[in-house]
Design goal:
By secondary structure, the chain is an alpha+beta fold. The protein has eight helices and four strands, in the order βαβααααααββα.
Length: 119
Amino acid sequence: MITLYGIPNCDTVKKARKWLEMQHLDYQFHDFRKDGVDNTLVAPWLQQVDSTVLLNRRSTTWKQLSDADKSVTTDDQLISLLVANPTLIKRPVIDCNGAIIVGFTPDRLNIFLTEQSGK
């Protein structure tokens, strides 16, 4: 089962969705804004990828945060920040049977999905 997390107007999310469809791969789309994000979703992601991979420090949302909000030092603080501001999550996050990859390029996603299908 593949779940693609993101926001529908993100160009990279659009590219990933189009690629999955061109490969005739079934997937579920989870819209951060409409479907929400919670601790039970984000915490396992941080067990698989470093916070520097998951947190989008180049986003407009990040630039608008206070210095206090930007000074997260623990995973719990980061999880709370990402749940409160889901657009801070780099996109897309793609989950294949519990394993995740953050970001999209056709080659990376193809390798990732091939590895996951062999498990």
